[in-house]
Write a structure and sequence with these properties.
Blueprint lengths: L1 H24 L7 H31 L11 H37 L3 E5 L5 E4 L1 H7 L3 H4 L4 H4 L3 H9 L6 E4 L6 E9 L3 E8 L1 H37 L4 H33 L8 E3 H16 L4 E5 L10 E3 L2 H17 L6 E8 L5 E7 L21 H6 L6 H11 L3 E7 L3 E8 L4 E2 L2 H6 L6
Parallel strand pairs: 7-9
Antiparallel strand pairs: 1-2, 1-5, 3-4, 4-5, 6-8, 8-13, 9-10, 10-12, 11-12
Helix pairs in contact: 1-2, 2-3, 8-9, 9-13, 10-11, 11-13
The protein binds adenosine-5'-diphosphate.
């Protein structure tokens, strides 16, 4: 309250000084009281004028915007200006803080993989995130304040919104034409609605695959089971000759073998899906893989095919190695060679080759002179239970899972499976492994760490 005292002092001073000056100026006059009074009035008037001037300056500052500093007067006006300025700055800071928080909040919503859209009580769009815009095909300049049902016309969505029962989300085909959307609505405030959108295309695809898979497995198991139970009934009820009995038993063992193969392939797939990627530091000698595959192939072919393995076991043994899981690699190779023999008629050729490319990649190639595969089937061959010729596959003991196992194995080793085939000419399946998983020579192996150059 210092300005209070100084103000009174200034007032008194102006009054006294004014009257003294008036007195002195009019002391020759018969009544010097009058000039003294005039002097005092002038003094007070000057003080009032100074006040008005300060007040006017403050008003001007407030009127013209408060971006510049407040007038730095002393006294009452100075304090008023200072306090107004402080209150304004405080409010500006708070508003700025609120703005920052709001923009952080919107940024967080934008970072979500799901879409968010806000609607008022009349279902007019107030705001939407860019993901929601993508899902519904909206544009901010065009679609804000529009009724949502004018823009999202999917019947499932419209009836969900109109029914007003938002306990469960609704699924429908993305209005953009691809994939599936799941949309959930939550009411808030005074009838406003929060719309949450999620792209569930992948989830739906996985779910369909899972359902198909279960249906396929059930079908594959039911068929041999039905055959087996028929044979069991025959054995139980019919008096069979020894020859007939042996034949029935052999057919039963064939069906059991089929189920065993199926269960074993299913287990292999489950293991491949459930276990971590094969290590990069476990080196499997290629020669050992080839020797294993060759012995299996020869016993499966029974001399009916011309088989060749390069490099051959008797030749200079390859020192190459692949980093990964021996069991998995063996399973992939065995499946390819097994297919080549099964789908190649007697007298045909099956060639298995290993080589390291100039880029350092490792390649296993299984080439046959079998019936070949029509181009339209090639992209689907690695799908589970996909068969070009179902009866041929089953007759030769196929499960329909071989190539999907091969694909899994090669992908887990960061490699690729290439398939080429020509009807009537034969097929060629190539497994390509990246340089990081390949040691080409004995030198590489000795170096220990470094892969093939
Ligand atoms: P399957 O157990 O039926 O052989 P795969 O997954 O191993 O199952 O192969 C899928 C399908 O691809 C086979 O049913 C067969 O029609 C075709 N196929 C695979 N390998 C060959 C090949 N070497 N020659 C011709 N067709 C083949």
């Amino acid at each position: 309250m210092k300005w209070n005292v100084s103000r009174v002092v200034a007032g008194v001073f102006a009054l006294v000084a004014g009257s003294a000056l008036g007195w002195m100026a009019g002391r020759q006059m018969p009544n010097p009281l009058l000039p003294a009074l005039i002097g005092a009035s002038v003094g007070v008037l000057l003080i009032a004028l100074a006040d008005t001037w300060h007040g006017y300056r403050l008003l001007e500052w407030l009127r013209l915007g408060t971006d510049s500093a407040a007038p730095s007067d002393t006294g009452m006006w100075g304090e008023i200006a200072h306090r107004v300025e402080r209150a304004l700055r405080l409010r500006e800071n708070q508003a700025e803080h609120e703005r920052e928080r709001l923009s952080e909040f919107f940024e967080a919503i934008e970072a979500s993989p799901n879409g968010v859209l806000l609607m008022d009580a009349n279902d007019q769009i107030d705001w939407f995130s860019s993901v929601a815009a993508d899902h519904f095909g909206l544009q901010p300049e065009r679609d804000l304040r529009q009724r949502i049902t004018n823009l999202v016309r999917s019947p499932a969505f419209v009836s969900y919104l109109q029914a007003g029962n938002f306990d469960m989300p609704v699924k429908f085909v993305n209005p953009q034409g691809q994939g599936m959307l799941s949309v959930m609505i939550r009411e808030y405030g005074d009838g406003q609605k929060l719309v949450l959108t999620q792209d569930i295309t992948e989830r739906e695809r996985a779910e369909t695959m899972r359902r198909d898979f279960v249906a396929n497995v059930s079908h594959e198991i039911r068929t041999p089971l039905t055959v087996l139970s028929g044979f069991i009934e025959t054995l139980a009820n019919l008096p069979l000759t020894e020859v007939e009995r042996k034949r029935v038993l052999s057919l039963m063992s064939q069906q059991t073998g089929r189920m065993q193969a199926l269960v074993s392939d299913l287990l292999t797939l489950a293991q491949l899906e459930g276990s971590p990627r094969p290590a990069l530091d476990r080196w499997v000698p290629v020669a050992r893989l080839l020797a294993h595959v060759e012995s299996d192939a020869r016993s499966l072919s029974h001399g009916r095919h011309h088989l060749s393995f390069t490099p051959a076991a008797g030749d200079v043994p390859t020192a190459a190695q692949i980093a990964g899981s021996e069991t998995e690699l063996l399973s992939a190779l065995a499946n390819l060679v097994n297919n080549a023999i099964r789908y190649t008629p007697e007298g045909g050729h099956v060639d298995v080759r290993w080589r390291v490319t100039p880029d350092g990649e490792g390649e296993f190639q299984v080439r046959d002179t079998g019936a070949g595969i029509e181009a339209e089937h090639l992209p689907r061959l690695t799908e589970r239970f996909y068969r070009v010729d179902g009866s041929r596959s089953r007759d030769t003991g196929g499960t329909g899972l071989g190539l999907s196992i091969v694909k899994h194995v090669v992908q887990r080793h960061a490699g690729e499976l290439h398939i080429e085939s020509q009807v009537g000419q034969g097929s060629c399946f190539t497994l390509v492994f990246p340089p990081a998983r390949v040691r080409a020579s004995i030198e590489d192996a000795r170096k220990g760490e470094s892969p093939a150059a």
